[in-house]
Design a protein that fits this description.
- Strand 6 and strand 7 form a beta hairpin.
- This protein has a single domain, classed as YbaK protein (Alpha-Beta Complex), CATH 3.90.960.10.
- The protein is α/β, with parallel strands linked by helices.
């Protein structure tokens, strides 16, 4: 694991509050898939998202791509767009080592742990800047809702990562 401090969800929520990020916070049973989120008894506002943690075939480039939950991503075309040959899902070991996260809790907030900037962050253009979006706050038993523009600002100002807007290719 990199030498960075791993933040807790409480610390992350404190950062959001202290830096003036308007957000909503929800606790719920653990969710591992987007289907689990839709089955929650409490309706959480905002765009339901999924985050794909990806790597190239040589394990030298990593990407974290946030898309709407219903998006069926064409990984081959996405690999071309990101200039990552042999794009595939990264391992749980890489997820833990680079973002301090476990499967089911993959989120843009994990970029906070990537102090060496080994992971490039991307946000699908289909999520407008002014729309509310859902993301886990480092664990899959909670959800934070904030504007996409605020998530981009958080990643840049707090996590030190520029989120790049990209048109994510979809499967037909």
């Amino acid at each position: 694991m990199n030498s960075a401090t791993n933040y807790t969800p409480r610390e992350l929520l404190g950062i959001l509050r202290d830096r003036g990020f308007e957000h909503l916070h929800f606790t719920h049973p653990p969710v591992f898939t987007t289907a689990d989120v839709t089955s929650l008894p409490e309706k959480i506002p905002g765009a339901d998202t999924k985050n794909l943690f990806l790597r190239d075939e040589k394990r030298t480039k990593f990407a974290l791509v946030c898309v709407r939950a219903e998006t069926r991503v064409n990984l081959k075309e996405l690999g071309r767009a990101l200039e990552m040959k042999g794009l595939t899902f990264a391992s749980p070991e890489d997820l833990l080592a680079l973002l301090g996260l476990i499967p089911g809790a993959v989120c843009l907030f994990g970029l906070l742990h990537d102090t060496e900037n080994r992971v490039a962050g991307y946000l699908d253009q289909s999520i407008p800047d002014d729309s509310q979006m859902q993301n886990h706050p480092l664990v899959n038993t909670e959800t934070v809702v904030l504007k996409a523009s605020d998530m981009m600002r958080f990643c840049l100002e707090v996590a030190g990562h520029q989120l790049t807007r990209i048109e994510v290719p979809v499967r037909g």
